[in-house]
UniProtKB/TrEMBL annotation:
It comes from Cohnella yongneupensis. This is N-acetyl-alpha-D-glucosaminyl L-malate synthase BshA. Residues 197-351 form the Glycosyl transferase family domain. Residues 16-178 form the Glycosyltransferase subfamily 4-like N-terminal domain. Gene3D superfamilies: Glycogen Phosphorylase B. It comes from the Bacteria. InterPro entries: Glyco_trans_1, Glyco_trans_4-like_N, Glycosyltransferase_grp1, Thiol_BshA.
Length: 377
């Protein structure tokens, strides 16, 4: 193994899958002896307590009176350059293409060519933003100027190539879970706060954006709860939440739905669920389905994006075409009504999550990419 590296990590530090992956990766790399410098506008929410080998550099935005819009991107690029020079960083690893890949490119222009840039594409940076003609060229530039590019599913690699006409290599780096955190926990006390004996718990966790199709979550639950005593737990917040609250009231489901808001201890929350619902319109990977799988909770969802690379239909969960909520509900009912089938899905999911998407494997992949771009053995 080559020498430990000095790695700068930039991500969106607030709630969101890309921020979670970036932060968990930083923690794991630090445990392996690398020196990690988070360069973000606030402390990444999953960072938690003090960690050896982890440093945090806050990006402060200049609010000079001539600026109509404070230039966050320029402040970030300058901070990346400062940290890279002062700390002698080997790598800047940026998560989410815009603006982070462009800022890293600018930082590299200032810091010098020895600084290598690795960009990880997470999903909506391509599937939504790269569809926007005003952003397309700049996203393409960020990708082309990176020393290595990774994406979190085969489907995202395919879509990046198609949308942006990228022929350069893109490494596949799936999302992962830390098995010390994500495992089945017994939590009958917590469960009893939400559901009575004999009631099933369905859960949805997201940022309640239109791509998540949270209206479909409610439709699936309405059909399931007409057949099986059940509760729905909604975790997270976002723009579609008021619409969903109104729909739940309209359908007379208020007594059976709990809104938990944003939650930090996702592993604990997931452990009280029987099923995870993920009927997304777009989903490059679906980290929440992996977290659920690793806690022994099968997913009922759509076939969008990279979800089929994670959830094996008929083995660890059920997947249907986007918007087919009746089929999704019928699959949920089938699984919740058959204890033997449910146990086999749970076991298969646990095995798959911990074998195929384990933290050691993916961390090692990222390290290999860093050493490759640095030309180190
Ligand atoms: O799910 C979101 O909308 C948040 C978004 C993000 O960038 O934080 O998540 C994306 O990245 C995750 C981590 O790689 C993936 O697991 C999610 O599937 C992906 N979301 C979408 O593609 C919609």
């Amino acid at each position: 193994m080559s020498r430990p590296l000095k790695i700068g990590i930039t991500c969106y530090p607030s709630l969101g899958g890309s921020g979670v992956v970036a932060t968990e990766l930083g923690k794991l790399l630090a445990e392996k002896g690398h020196e990690i410098h988070f360069i973000t506008h606030s402390i990444p929410f999953r960072l938690g307590k003090f960690h050896r080998n982890i440093y945090y550099h806050e990006v402060e935005v200049s609010d000079y009176y001539v600026f109509r819009y404070p230039p966050y991107d320029l402040s970030l690029a300058s901070k990346m350059n400062q940290v890279a020079r002062l700390q002698k960083l080997d790598i800047l690893h940026v998560h989410y293409a815009v603006p982070h890949a462009i800022c890293a490119y600018l930082a590299k222009q200032m810091a010098g060519d020895e600084l290598k840039v690795v960009t990880t594409l997470h999903g909506t940076d391509i599937t939504v933003l790269a569809q926007d003609e005003t952003l397309k060229d700049i996203i393409r530039l960020g990708i082309r100027k990176s020393d290595a590019v990774t994406a979190v599913s085969q489907d995202l690699i395919r879509e990046t190539r198609e949308l942006l006409d990228i022929n350069e290599p893109i490494d596949l780096t799936y999302n992962f879970v830390d098995k010390r955190v994500y495992y089945p926990r017994s939590c009958s006390d917590l469960r009893a706060d939400f559901a009575g004996p004999g009631e099933k718990i369905l859960m949805h966790i997201s940022n309640f954006r239109p791509v998540k199709r949270t209206g479909d979550v409610v439709d699936i639950f309405a059909r399931v709860s007409a057949k099986i005593p059940a509760k729905l737990l909604l975790v997270g917040e976002g723009p579609d939440l008021p619409k969903i609250q109104a729909k739940i009231q309209r359908l007379g489901l208020s007594e059976r739905v709990h809104f938990l808001g944003k939650q930090d201890d996702v592993a604990q929350v997931i452990s009280i669920a029987d099923l995870m619902l993920l009927p997304s319109e777009k989903e490059s990977f679906g980290l929440v389905a992996l977290e659920a799988m690793a806690c022994g909770v099968p997913t009922i969802g759509s076939q969008a994006g990279g979800i089929p690379e994670l959830v094996v239909h008929g083995i660890t969960g059920y997947l249907s075409p986007i918007g087919h909520t009746e089929e999704m509900a019928d699959n949920a009912i089938r699984l919740l009504s058959d204890d033997t089938l449910y146990a086999s899905f749970r076991e298969a999911g646990l095995k798959r999550a911990h074998q195929e998407f384990c933290d050691e494997r993916v961390t090692r992949q990222y390290e290999d990419i860093y050493y490759r771009v640095l030309g180190l053995p």
